[in-house]
Amino acid sequence: MRFTDGFWQLREGVSALYAREAHDIDVRDDALVVSAPTKVIETRGDTLNRPVLTVTLTAPLAGIIGVLIEHHIGGLPHEGFDLPGIGDDSASPTIVIDATGGAITSGDLTARVRHGAGWSLSFESGGHVLASSDESSIAMIDVDPSVALDGQLEDQLRRHRGGGAQRYMHQQLSLGVGELVYGLGERFGPLVKNGQSIETWNADGGTSSEQAYKNVPFYVTNRGYGVLVDHPGHVSFEVGSENVERVQFAVAGERLQYYVIAGTGQREVLERYTALTGRPALPPAWSFGTWLSTSFTTDYDEKTVTGFIDGFAERDLPLSVFHFDCFWMREFNWCDFEWDPRVFPDPEGMLHRLHSRGLKVSVWVNPYIGQRSPLFEEARSAGHLLRRRDGTVWQWDMWQAGMAIVDFTNPDARRWYQEKLRRLTAQGVDTFKTDFGERVPLDVVWHDGSAPEGMHNRFAQLYNEAVFEVLQERGEGDAVVFARSATVGGHRFPVHWGGDSASTFVSMAETLRGGLSLAFGAFGFWSHDIGGFEGTPDPAVFKRWTAFGFLSSHSRFHGSRSYRVPWAFDDEAVEVTRVFSQLKMRLMPYLYAAGKESARSGVPVMRPMPLAFPDDPAAAYLDRQYMLGADLLVAPVFTADGDVEFYLPAGGWTHLLTGERVTGGGWRRERHGFTSLPLYVRDGAVLPLSAHADRPDADWLKGLELRIFGDPDDATIVVDNPAGDSAEYSVVKDETGYSASTQSSDAFSIAIATGPATAASHGKARITR
User: Fold this and answer.
1) Distance from C-alpha of 572 to C-alpha of 233, rounded to nearest angstrom
2) What is the SS3 string spanning 490-550?
3) Is residue 367 very low, low, confident or very high in pLDDT (cuts 50, 70, 90)?
4) Do residues 519 and 183 lie in contact, with contact meaning Cβ atoms separated by under 8 Å?
5) What is the pLDDT of residue 723?
6) Are 376 and 394 in contact (CB under 8 A)?
7) Buried b / exposed e across 585-597, counting CB within 10 Å, b at 16+?
């Protein structure tokens, strides 16, 4: 949202009052409180008839400083995100006030306010200024109703607020030379956000639009800090766009709260961000396996499902989860949480038969209750449905005829919805695909009194949390959902998938960009519809997408109007599925370790190149490749002929599938067949590989292979089994080669990587116990 006409002028119909000076600086309850008049106070008369902005600086956690900018402070309490770290007592700020101004220090981050005019607030760490708020950067802005602001969304929100002049608060933070901005949720445009206008408002817009299913008003830069805007409603960002020297974020109203999070690099910023917002949960090992869906509008019954499962088994294709999409329930009944008896007359028996084949079962749900659902009247009479201001149930006909929305701010409604899910888990359902959650209306009254605008994005959090809680009841570490919508904190309830993509190479690339952008918000586990959702991919798209899909943290075949079983495309698609699904099963000890690291620190399993290589300027803009964990570089192929161009950072690398060794430090052009792609292991890695290529949750310690790449020094590798036991392996280098030892009683092998990962190519190695 832009308020200016070039650098010098405001747009016609826009007026702005800026924080002009730090007139008074006080200490109140471990906070630094600044009175910032909107005019430089030269005489006592200047204090009259003059708005003053109050800027309060706090230190919720070490390395994090909160900034609250307020005009009138007597409004309703601030509705922010659920930030579990706020209650942590680890922060002990140091506050100093002297003749030059005031400073508050939290860990290695200091916020410094200069006394007097003009306004100056800086954030410093390690002797460097990370970002600053200078003259004309903090503003209270009034916009005449005649002014056409940017975009349909803001016009809609202004109508909701009642028309008339609109008030906004904005903050601008400096952008240094060469400073790049990443994150702000799942965004399908360029990975680097500089030059973009971004509106954080959850919407069902598909992957080829500027809208996003997962809006996270948090960004991180390549200068060692991040910024979280603690506002669950609409936040408008201008990232070096309105003012090319600054990042601007603006919200409606008279209050703006944000946090600056420092770190020695982007990794530490994410660690501190998740200390504030909560760590990701670790999904169960079985969820890393192959998910096969019925697809959306296809016809299916138990015979269809059994045929797909038999087809996977007959072709030696690993399969872990079978997903029933929308039409497991009867049409127009979504949601009634009842199996359609016309096609699934014996759901308990069917679920038992699927479990007997070693499969987990997922079913589709959403937070809506259609008017034809037998549950509609039950929910309406109990007050569980979202209501309009006149007390009637909010309904519309998009998606489901006469559908209403469950009001998750009502504890009774939340429990009611959870009870419906518990009936399904009692039948044998293992997990839920939590679809939708973006189309949340404004002309409503929430049970807990939440502001409708603030609940629009937060609704996804309450919805997914309610479902996740039900799955957690089965035991620690066994909960996983497959969610589409999210906001700040949504990373605590994995897994998320990329939404509705087209079945094209272009859409495959934009899907990856969305996932990498989301990763900067600490979403550690991510998936996408292999082959694309809309339309039917041609065999080349399907095969290339399959390789990409199995080199993501989670892998699901899903489509809209056509099945996604690989033999529906060609025989080679079956082979591609076999190669990469079995490879992923062998990589499970490595991937699970990356998942545990994500749960500990917030660093995602799929790591954008700027996050993995912060000191390599050539990695800064890369958005067609990524690191899978710490040691595997993946460059998906986006062409039918297999031509791919990618960047290999400095150092030695070994192609995992061929054993070819190359030296990095530049761009490479390669051509790959459908059963290959650029998949390189960095020198120094010791890769633990499972002997089991058929399932993700096998006993990895039995027959484990430790594959050594390059010429590493001594290393210690810990492998955690899905069952909870673990083993530590010590790899030692001496003049004769490498040896490995462990206290585990299970047999294992050690190999020097001189051939493909699928081969038992052993160099000089010794095994001891």
Assistant:
1) 48
2) HHHCCCEECCCCECCHHHHHHHHHHHHHHHCCCCCCEECEECCCECCCCHHHHHHHHHHHH
3) very high
4) no
5) 86
6) no
7) bbbbbbbbbbbeb
Q: Give pLDDT tens digits for 414-442.
A: 999 999 999 999 999 999 999 999 999 99
In terms of pTM, does the model score above 0.90? yes
With tokens 């009611």, the residue in question is 416
Let me know: does 38 contact 103? Beta carbons within 8 Å: no
8 A C-beta contact, residue 66 and residue 58: yes
Statement: residue 726 has pLDDT above 90: yes
Q: Where in the chain is the domain with CATH 3.20.20.80?
A: 285-363+409-439+451-581
Q: By C-alpha distance, which of 429, 493, 37, 4 is closest to 250?
A: 4
Q: Is 3.40.50.300 the CATH classification of the domain at 285-363+409-439+451-581?
A: no
Candidate list 438, 510, 683, 697, residue with the active-site label: 438
For domain 28-277, give the fold.
Answer: Immunoglobulin-like (2.60.40)
- Under CATH, which number does the domain 606-768 receive? 2.60.40.1180
Catalytic residue among 154, 186, 254, 435: 435
Domain with CATH 2.60.40.1180 in the chain: 606-768
Across the chain, which distance is largest between two alpha carbons, in Å? Answer: 87
* Catalytic annotation present for 135: no
- DSSP three-state, residue 358: coil
Asked about 500 being catalytic, the answer comes back as yes
Question: What stretches of 206-332 show up as alpha helix (H) in DSSP?
Answer: 266-277, 302-314
Phi, psi (deg, nearest 5) at residue 265: -170, -175
Could you say which of 70, 199, 338, 500 is catalytic?
A: 500
pLDDT of residue 89: 62
